[in-house]
TrEMBL record, chain A:
InterPro entries: Electron_transfer_protein (IPR052049), NrfD-like (IPR005614). It holds the Pfam family NrfD. It is found in: Cell membrane. It is a multi-pass membrane protein. Its main location: membrane. Residues 1-21 have a biased composition (Basic and acidic residues). Keywords: Cell membrane, Membrane, Transmembrane, Transmembrane helix. It comes from Actinoalloteichus caeruleus DSM 43889. The chain crosses the membrane at residues 63-85, 97-115, 135-155, 162-182, 202-220. Belongs to the NrfD family. Residues 1-42 are annotated as: Disordered. This is Polysulfide reductase, NrfD.
From TrEMBL, chain B:
Belongs to the prokaryotic molybdopterin-containing oxidoreductase family. Its main location: other. Residues 343-378 are annotated as: Disordered. Pfam families: Molybdop_Fe4S4, Molybdopterin, Molydop_binding. This is Formate dehydrogenase major subunit. It comes from the Bacteria. InterPro entries: Asp_de-COase-like_dom_sf, Formate_DH_Act, MoPterin_dinucl-bd_dom, Mopterin_OxRdtase, Mopterin_OxRdtase_4Fe-4S_dom.
TrEMBL record, chain C:
Residues 1-21, 112-135 are annotated as: Disordered. This is Formate dehydrogenase iron-sulfur subunit. InterPro entries: 4Fe4S_Fe-S-bd, 4Fe4S_Fe_S_CS, FDH_Electron_Transfer_Unit, Formate_DH_Fe-S_su. SUPFAM superfamilies: 4Fe-4S ferredoxins. Residues 26-56, 139-170, 171-200 form the 4Fe-4S ferredoxin-type domain. Signal peptide: none annotated. Keywords: 4Fe-4S, Iron, Iron-sulfur, Membrane, Metal-binding, Repeat, Transmembrane, Transmembrane helix. It is found in: Cell envelope. The chain crosses the membrane at residues 301-321.
């Protein structure tokens, strides 16, 4: 019976809220489930299999390319400084040039990916510690000119003091440029990125070091690339370790790193990296050609890592199970814990 | 003064302000700072009403720099409380979007393209065509009776138009002798008018949307309430919030079912069996409201001893004439009463047997206000024991409607049925009320009027009429379809449900009145209403001496409904056609026949917003595709006039609450778009100018017509308030009348529509009143104006017991105040305000004086609610279950398969299919029903062109159960072809558990659901469901049966081109369809 | 100033974002148990914000032809048909394990039907009559209008490098279209898949909680239109109270599956400004079951970035130490 009475004095007992009840008298019979094939069964774990997240609109070439070029630049700046201060001009100069070229390329890629490229300057409208992209923009704003000055002073020979300062600055900022992109990727809801937020910076700096080493092995005289070759070995080891650890920690979310495009690229990266690093260490000193080939392998390997990470992320955002399952598990765990506490 | 740019630099603000992280205050942009919503900068807010459905939601229209910039809900409205459904919310796109045309277009005979034409020339051409066609097709007499009319011209449309526009259309066309004036009310709710009118005395819903909040139980049956009246549905939800039970009985699980407490699937076309079952339950378990039934219904009346029931005659009532296919209704009368119903054979000095012709003239609809007249005093048995008293007749009639029978006929399991009975009966009686809400799921059947009668009987037995939270809510369709029934652009009615005179019966005014007016109740004043109407139309020319120009009214000789018109077009009788806001090429049954009819015209005028299918069939219609028609061979001249939208004109709509609400013009229309008021007024003016000086008698009515309204604005629109004032009427001094009590029969008053009398009381536009709902009680009586006399609940006298006390203190609506000597309460009582409960009329009392203090149904000839209709309906005094025209089942209740007096017209383009046990029935094995979606509107003219709505339901589809999909190999999201004896169409398949197979008469039956909104034009396009439907009509109201027919369904798309007709033919052949199939009585 | 900037409850979001004298926080409570799936909210939003129409596609997903939230759909009404009664205990786990994705995939493929099958003589359908299912139709049709959650800790806002996304004085999260440069960072940051870029225009768009209207004291367009008040707009605190009472009432009525979503300030995003009453698990409606704002982990990310960068610098430097070749 309704609670609302129409009395002589007006309505009494009208519901104050605006909510209506549902159910209440529904007969509880279940329709047998026989073999009904045609009706689209609702899915208990997702909404018609649609993604929960909006996958990034980023283009792979732009953003994975940007990650790669940023790493290449950052790593090269460190190698350049090393070369600069250990008197390896043959290493330092190309590394500086590579750094400048790569950072320019990375900025172009970034701007190219903007929906409103004309507004790229808005990146410096605010400084937001919460936004890796904002931090990165400011970082690039500092690093880019430094890398540029380092390269130009080196080429021209003008203002050596300024050149040295710029080289040092670029070397200090370079690793940050290489590393922050990991935070950029991880600071999203994309499961395969976010869940790697601890290891991804290590993957990225390793990959950056590999790219820089590779570039140096191609561009510098073999005699001066010893640090690069050693770096490649170290970085390869670092990348393998970091990746393995990341995938282990991620659980089922690591799947996209092993399957599909992401998996293929990651496998290729691993092969190229190991081959490039080991080959470089063994042959890089003796053969200019071998050095070049190994260097190229490292470069491509590094690119593969970035594209692999990129695609794995995209895939994990597209398939709702990577979002839902870990979260479900979390909820269940919490409920179990709460139940335990209740019992205790 | 500009601040230095760098101070604007957010980083600077970050460093200096509280928002260090740059996530809020520091990041604000210049544009954000100056952000102002466009509603805040508007120059004016104009009040309007949503142009789509009959809920009549209030709209605020924002105008800036002469442009409408926004439309949203008016929070003051007591009906809608500011809310709008998706269609109402899309009104801005509807009115300002790019789909609207703003130029006149012309298609010359045999032309293949549209040509531009300027408005003035077009108007002149149309005026010339009207005059010529009228002359050439004039019928001064038919069969020796004066008719003074033309069947050469027809008009269709009105439910989307303002009351004032409908009034002028009816007035002008009637004066021109055009009788085929019709609107959506025919195809939509005409059976409602007949059903409710004969039951209670008025053809409008007995209650109003807001009152549903007081219901203890709401039965929604034959309506998809939540989808078709979404904003009105808030009142159902309000009731639910207070603990009411909501039940939905429908062939499909819809968005309404989703919110119901109990959903009951039913086989389409079997509701009378279901309701009859409940009636039987109520009677056999004694759960009726005894005191109410005895006092307020005709339960105690004795029926004539000659009466024979369907029990006696295998499903027929007494008096059936098999040859003619009609009933002689005399034996249905009360004992001691002479019938004066025009709906059949008449007893006093009338032609003995007008038969089918008279029956088909749609008289039952005239009971939309005032039940049929009776002469004499019926005998009563207050004990309800007499075997011939209505109560006992009823008991016997429904005895066979057992739960088992319901299960076998409707496919509703017994337990479920009994649960419904339990809910309804336990929520009725003194302390509780149950409401019924229905719409076209009930009206659109070959027994449509009787569906509504069945619900009326039930509600009377349960004592639910006239009480808060009770009643029957007829959910009307278009924004002003109620208005276009009240001020009818309908062939059989004059304003206020006064019947159109019939050639053979109504020679003169006296005859006309005497054959229709009642002795008792307000309908006894019919003469005053008719005379005042004639005065309104012919002013000084209407005098007592000339019968107030009664002869100027053209006469009917039979049915001239829109479906008769189509036949007349096919037969070359109707030559010119106005489509004033209706789209029969999609919306009317058998749409192919509609187009073939139009292809046979001399000229066609279409007034609409966009190029709807009814305007373009000659160029790219389906028959052009199949090669049946070729543009270069079609002689029809087509004029397209762009119509003004609701916000571009002032005028009133009447919503489903019978509530008139005024819309204020927000701006004038652009380009050559004009209001229908402008069109009809200036067309009339041009015709009158051309005919000026004519001495032909046939031209007198048009020349004598009062056709003089103040023009306003830059476009010369007639002033709508002046028209409203004429509708309201005035006395000899020109003072506005304040109610129909003021109307006189001596020619001293004039009134364009007597039931609207009072809407301009005191010279104030009462329909424009807008007192916010928060400032008054729930009846909202100071918002707009409801007929009759601003009353919201009809028959509210019945909410009090015979002594005048509320039946229950929790259901108090009106009560007798002894001290004040008046009725008082929350609503203005639908009774004589100072008539005490104890009043008993003297035997010789007539008219209003004859209404006793316990007669709540003041428009009925006996003051009672009719459980049994001794007169007024042509297919029986009691609802009886018949199978639809096309059904996969034999009628289990009686040998009589179909409504014996339904109007079926088998023609080459309107063939019927075998039913039940007839051979060939299995070729069309499935039940089809059609319906609406929230996101689209009717034939789609106002939604399929709107991107925001089109994207929400982007394709025509059919809904089938998984079981049917399996049986026929239909794939979800794939295509299906659905075929009937008329045509075949294709639709995307939606396989869903919401469609459930039913177990009927020992086997499983599948139903197919299809929205009918699509057609080949617009932004979203698709086949039209009405290609499949047949023209089969309810005999009382001429409404088409589009809620239940049979068909076959197959996977895949339909054949194209000429193969389509071959495909349909092939099916016909296999089913053995001939011209006699399905036509037996 | 509140202590926690990155996660957890924040009763004064607007103040934390530097708005002095901020009004109370406003939000939405969407009670899906009374939604009639009319989509007025979708249309009202589009009309008010002049959002482009985004394609005529029959999805095959019940009556949902919008699909999901995005740049051109700031409200989205989900439709879920289920074979279970409305009234009953909370759904157990037994419905799991259906191959949902396969079924859904089936739902969105368009089988191209080329030829016309030859008409067959239909056999008598169902005359044998299994009939068991007659009238047995207990199913429910869930409808729910989804929208931007206006998170207490809004990842989209946090990661936005331009300050285009900002926290308003009402505690809501809004894109400033004159600022957005289309970097697209906010898109993957949102744990609910709400904000998206418009391909032709490049910028990111989402619900503004009708910032312009609320600013002049008007109700948001969607809430105002909603016929059944499924969408309720108001002060967040009051809405939370109302929602709690509502859940209790529904439980009392036997609707055991009713639960709130996004109402809890202790959850992974610090509670939503727009929260919901659901009748099934969130993922059934396409919502994440336990979303966490990505910036909760940002301090650790920065730490790891720092260590990694230092490692790189040190590691590479170390390669130069020692014998010169
Ligand atoms: N969104 C929207 N609103 C509208 C309209 C619209 O086109 N779109 N049109 C307006 C108009 S013109 C009108 S008349 C009203 C109509 O309003 P409704 O009558 O509610 O509209 P329908 O959907 O045509 O039919 C109602 C229901 O009847 C069911 N039905 C079919 N056959 C039977 C039967 O034999 N028995 C029973 N019990 N039910 C049956 C259908 O499945 C459907 O659910 O809506 C008005 N409002
Ligand atoms: N199969 C099937 N068929 C049905 C029904 C069904 O349920 N099933 N329902 C029936 C019912 S109830 C109805 S009411 C009909 C409706 O059928 P129609 O009335 O034919 O359909 P509408 O699309 O509403 O057509 C009205 C037209 O008027 C135009 N219009 C709107 N406002 C104005 C105005 O101010 N001036 C002018 N000149 N034009 C205007 C609109 O653009 C639209 O094209 O369909 C009927 N047909
Ligand atoms: S279509 Fe009907 S319910 Fe919807 S807004 Fe208009 S009047 Fe209201
Ligand atoms: S729901 Fe997504 S878009 Fe909305 S405020 Fe939260 S993070 Fe931002
Ligand atoms: S796309 Fe626009 S709103 Fe989104 S993060 Fe980038 S600048 Fe901010
Ligand atoms: S609050 Fe405004 S912007 Fe947000 S969904 Fe509602 S209408 Fe759209
Ligand atoms: S939330 Fe409201 S407006 Fe939106 S679909 Fe549900 S009932 Fe309609
Ligand atoms: Mo209608």
């Amino acid at each position: 019976m309704s609670t609302s009475d129409v009395t002589r004095d007006g309505i009494r007992g009208a519901h104050p809220g605006r909510e209506a009840r549902v159910g209440g008298t529904g007969e509880q019979r279940w329709r047998p489930r026989g073999q009904r094939t045609a009706a689209p069964e609702y899915s208990p774990d997702s909404y018609y299999g649609l993604p929960v997240l909006n996958p990034p609109r980023w283009a792979a070439t732009d953003i994975a390319g940007y990650f790669f070029l940023g790493g290449l630049a950052g790593g090269s700046s460190v190698l350049a400084a090393g070369g600069h201060w250990t008197n390896r001009p043959g290493l330092a100069r190309p590394a500086k040039l590579v750094a400048l070229g790569a950072v320019s390329g990375s900025v172009v890629a970034l701007v190219h990916d903007l929906g409103r490229p004309a507004r790229f300057l808005n990146m410096l409208r605010v400084f937001k510690i919460t936004s890796p992209m904002s931090v990165g923009s400011w970082l690039l704003a500092a690093y880019g000119p430094a890398a540029g000055a380092a390269a130009i002073t080196d080429l021209t020979g003008w203002f050596p003091r300024i050149g040295a300062t710029a080289t040092a600055t670029a070397a200090v900022l370079g690793p940050l440029v290489a590393a922050y992109t990991a935070a950029l990727a991880a600071d999203t809801a994309v499961p395969a990125w976010h869940e790697g937020h601890r290891e991804l910076p290590f993957v990225f700096v390793s990959s950056a070091a590999l790219a820089a080493s590779g570039a140096s092995m191609i561009a510098a005289p073999t005699a001066q690339t010893g640090p690069a070759r050693r770096a490649a070995v170290l970085a390869a080891a670092g990348e393998l370790a970091a990746t393995a650890r990341m995938e282990r920690r991620m659980g089922m979310v690591a799947e996209p790193y092993r399957t599909g495009w992401g998996g293929r690229l990651m496998k290729a990266a691993k092969a190229l990296t190991v081959a490039g690093a080991v080959g470089g260490a063994l042959l890089g000193r003796r053969s200019r050609v071998a050095a070049g080939v190994c260097g190229a392998a490292l470069l491509v390997g590094s690119a593969c890592t970035r594209f692999g990470v990129f695609h794995a992320g995209m895939e994990s955002a597209r398939d709702p199970k990577y979002t839902v399952e870990p979260q479900r598990a979390r909820v269940r765990e919490r409920a179990a814990r709460a139940a335990e506490e209740n019992v205790a | 003064m500009a601040t230095p740019r760098w101070l604007d630099w957010p980083v600077f603000r970050q460093l200096t302000g509280p928002d260090r992280l740059g996530r809020g205050a520091a990041a604000v942009s210049r544009e954000t700072e100056s952000l102002r919503p466009r509603v805040a900068t508007a120059d004016k807010v104009s009040k309007s009403i949503c142009p789509y459905c009959a809920v009549g939601c209030g709209q605020n229209v924002y105008v800036q720099d002469g442009r409408v910039t926004h439309i949203e809900g008016d929070p003051d409205s007591p009906v809608s409380r500011g809310r709008l459904c998706p269609k109402g919310s899309a009104s801005l796109q509807l009115t300002t979007g790019s789909s609207r045309r703003h130029e006149v277009l012309y298609r010359r005979p045999y032309g293949t393209e549209w040509e531009p034409l300027d408005l003035e020339t077009a108007m002149d051409m149309v005026a010339e065509r009207v005059i010529r066609t009228r002359r050439e097709n004039w019928q001064e007499e038919v069969d020796g009776s004066r008719t003074r009319r033309t069947l050469g011209i027809a008009s269709l449309g009105g439910a989307t138009l303002d009351n004032e526009e409908n009034y002028l259309i009816k007035k002008l066309f009637t004066a021109l002798g055009i009788v085929q004036v019709e609107n959506q009310a025919r195809v939509c709710h005409s059976s409602t008018v007949a059903g409710l009118g004969t039951s209670f005395g008025r053809g409008g819903g007995t209650t109003y949307l807001q009152d549903l909040q007081h219901s203890d139980c709401i039965i929604i049956e034959g309506s998809n309430f939540a989808e078709a009246h979404p904003v009105g549905f808030q009142w159902v939800m309000e009731a639910k919030a207070r603990g009411a039970t909501v039940i939905h009985v429908d062939p499909r699980f819809s968005r309404t079912s989703a919110l119901a407490d109990l959903y009951v699937p039913i086989r389409a076309g079997t509701d009378i069996a279901f309701l009859g079952g409940i009636i039987n339950h109520v009677l056999s378990t004694g759960k009726y409201f005894h005191d109410y039934v005895v006092n307020y219904t005709n339960a105690a009346m004795l029926v004539h001893e000659d009466f024979q029931d369907t029990e006696d005659l295998d499903g027929l009532f007494g008096g059936f004439d098999r040859e003619d296919g009609t009933y002689d209704v005399d034996s249905w009368q009360y004992e001691g009463v002479r019938v004066a119903s025009a709906a059949g054979k008449r007893s006093v000095d009338e032609p003995r047997h007008p038969g089918r012709d008279m029956q088909s003239s749609g008289h039952p609809e005239s009971h939309g206000f005032g039940g049929p007249a009776l002469h004499g005093e019926p005998l009563r048995d207050e004990t309800l024991q007499h075997p011939r008293c209505v109560f006992q007749v009823l008991r016997r009639h429904y005895a066979r409607y057992t739960p088992e029978m319901v299960e076998q006929v409707c496919g509703i399991p017994r337990e479920k049925f009994l649960r419904v009975c339990e809910e309804i009966t336990s929520n009725s009686g003194r302390d509780r009320t149950t409401a019924f809400a229905y719409a076209v799921g009930w009206t659109q059947h070959s027994v449509g009027a009787q569906y509504i009668r069945a619900a009326s009987i039930l509600q009377l037995l349960l004592g639910n009429i006239g009480r808060p939270g009770g009643g029957i809510l007829a959910l009307r369709g278009h924004a002003s379809i109620q208005g276009s029934s009240d001020i009818p652009t309908l062939f059989d009615l004059l304003p206020g449900y006064i019947p159109m005179p019939h050639a053979h019966l109504h020679e003169d005014l006296n005859h006309f009145i005497s054959s229709d007016a009642a002795d008792k109740g307000y309908w006894a004043n019919m003469r005053a209403y008719v005379v005042s109407l004639l005065k309104a139309w012919w002013g000084p020319a209407a005098t007592e001496e000339n019968d107030y120009c009664f002869d100027y009214l053209p006469r009917l000789t039979g049915g001239h409904s829109t479906y008769d018109t189509v036949m007349a077009q096919r037969d070359g009788i109707c030559r010119g056609y106005f489509l004033l806001g209706e789209n029969p090429a999609v919306g009317s049954a058998n749409s192919r026949m509609q187009r073939l009819g139009m292809a046979n015209l001399d000229w066609l005028v279409v007034r609409d917003f966009s190029l709807i299918e009814s305007a373009t069939w000659w160029q790219d219609g389906p028959e052009i595709e199949t090669g049946e028609l070729r543009s270069t061979e079609i002689g029809t001249e087509v004029f397209f006039f762009p119509a003004a939208a609701h916000i571009e004109k002032s005028g009133s709509f009447t919503n489903t609450n019978r509530l008139l609400q005024w819309k204020h013009q927000a701006k004038e229309p652009d380009g050559e778009a004009r209001s229908d008021m402008w069109f009809i007024y200036h067309l009339g003016r041009r015709i009158r100018e051309r005919l000026a000086g004519s001495t032909e008698p046939m031209d007198r009515p048009i020349l004598d017509l009062t056709w003089d309204y103040p023009l306003e604005g830059t476009l010369g629109d007639p002033n709508a308030e002046a028209v409203l004032a004429e509708i309201n009427g005035w006395d000899a001094e020109g003072r506005p009348l304040s109610g129909y009590d003021d109307i006189r029969d001596d020619g001293s008053t004039s009134c364009g529509c007597w039931i609207y009398c009072g809407v301009y009381q005191d010279g104030v536009n009462q329909a424009a009143r807008r007192r916010p709902h928060r400032e008054q009680n729930w009846t909202g009586s100071e918002w707009g104006w409801a007929w009759p006399q601003n009353r919201r609940t009809l028959y509210s006298r019945a909410s009090a017991d015979p002594e005048g006390r509320p039946w229950s203190e929790r259901k108090a609506l009106v009560w007798w105040d002894e001290e004040a000597g008046r009725w008082t309460g929350h609503d203005s009582i639908d009774f004589i305000a100072d008539r005490p409960p104890s009043y008993r009329p003297a035997p010789e009392a007539r008219g209003v004086e004859a209404i006793s203090g316990v007669d709540p149904f003041i428009m009925q000839a006996d003051g009672k609610g009719w459980l049994y209709t001794p007169a007024g309906l042509v297919d029986g005094p009691l609802p009886t279950h018949y199978e639809p025209q096309e059904s996969p089942f034999p009628n289990l209740l009686y040998p009589q398969q179909r409504n014996p007096v339904r109007l079926a017209n088998s023609r080459e383009d309107n063939r019927y299919q075998p039913s039940g046990d007839e051979p060939g029935a299995e070729v069309y094995p499935y039940v089809v029903t059609t319906y609406r979606l929230t996101e689209h509107f009717t034939a789609g003219g106002m939604t399929r062109w709107q991107p925001y709505l089109a994207e929400l339901q982007p394709e025509f589809f059919c809904e089938v159960s998984p079981e049917l999909a399996e049986e026929r190999g239909l794939e979800h999201h794939g295509w299906a072809t659905i075929v009937t004896a008329r045509n075949a169409i294709e639709a995307r398949v939606v396989v869903t558990d919401r469609m459930t197979p039913l177990f009927v008469q020992g086997r499983t039956v599948h139903q197919i659901g299809m929205p009918y909104h699509w057609g080949p034009n617009g932004y979203t396009t698709g086949d039209s469901a009405n290609e499949l439907s047949s023209i089969t009509l309810d005999p009382n109201a001429h409404i088409q049966e589009v809620k239940a027919w049979t068909a076959d369904i197959r996977p895949g798309r339909r054949p194209r081109g000429a193969a389509l007709r071959r495909y349909v033919e092939d099916y016909r052949r296999r089913a053995g369809v001939t011209e006699t199939t399905g036509t037996e009585a | 100033m509140p202590t926690n900037q990155f996660s957890g409850p924040d009763p004064h979001v607007a103040a934390s974002a530097g708005h002095r004298d901020a009004p109370p926080r406003y939000g939405f409570f969407t009670d899906t148990s009374v939604c009639i799936g009319c989509k007025a909210c979708e249309v009202a939003c589009k009309e008010w914000n002049a959002i482009p129409e985004d394609g005529l596609e029959l999805t095959g997903m019940s009556f949902d032809n919008t699909g999901r939230l995005g740049a051109d759909s700031w409200r989205h009404v989900a439709f879920v048909e289920q074979r279970k009664p409305l009234v009953g205990p909370p759904p157990d786990e037994s419905h799991r394990g259906v191959d949902a994705l396969a079924a859904a995939a089936q739902g969105v493929t368009v089988p191209e039907q080329g030829g016309w099958p030859a008409p067959l003589v239909p056999e008598q359908p169902g005359r044998g009559g299994d009939g068991g299912s007659a009238g047995d139709t207990d199913l429910r049709w869930l409808m729910a209008s989804d929208v931007c959650k206006h998170c207490t800790h809004a990842a989209c806002l946090d990661v936005c490098p331009t300050g285009s996304l900002f926290r308003t004085e009402f505690g809501t999260v809004v894109v400033q279209e004159d600022i957005c440069n289309g970097c697209g960072y906010c898109v993957p940051a949102c744990p609910y898949g709400v904000i998206d870029q418009r391909p032709d225009d490049g910028r990111a768009w989402k619900c503004t909680l009708c910032y312009d209207r609320v600013g002049v004291g008007m109700e948001p367009a969607c809430a105002k239109a909603c016929p059944t008040d499924s969408i309720q707009f108001g002060e967040l605190d009051e809405l939370r109270e109302r929602a709690a009472a509502r859940v209790e009432q529904l439980h009392g009525d036997g609707v055991g599956s009713a639960r709130l979503y996004g109402h809890d300030p202790e959850d992974g995003v610090g509670g939503d400004g727009a929260f919901f009453l659901l009748l099934d698990e969130p993922e059934v409606y396409g919502l994440p079951p336990d979303p966490v704002v990505t910036t909760r982990d940002l301090p650790r990310m920065w730490a790891h970035v720092g260590v990694a960068a230092a490692t790189m610098l040190g590691g590479l430097a170390a390669m130069f130490v020692g014998r010169r070749s």
